[in-house]
Amino acid sequence: MKIESFILPTHWASAMINGDVTGYDDDDIEAINLFSDHMVKEYGRCWCLDVTDDNGFLKYHDAETYGILACDCSTFTFDITQR
Hints:
The chain is α+β, with helices and mostly antiparallel strands. It has one domain. Helix content is 29%, strand content 34%. The protein is built from 2 helices and 3 strands. The chain has helices at residues 13-18, 26-43; strands at 3-9, 47-58, 71-79. Strands 1-3-2 form a 3-stranded antiparallel sheet. The longest helix has 18 residues, at 26-43. The chain is globular, with a radius of gyration of 12 Å.
């Protein structure tokens, strides 16, 4: 199994693990969708295996490209194994 880890907003955990965007605002949903689209384009899948709440408040993280400002972040681990 090949895995890749990203530092992402902690509040994305429910969306990444469960696919549940209930309670997210439109900007967060758009950013999550853009990240997921990038993962599928880059790795062929977007399957989150684990979230480790270990990074605290960060200005620089891997969701910055998608318009997310400084926030509490965690390490998200994804299975990127090619099928």
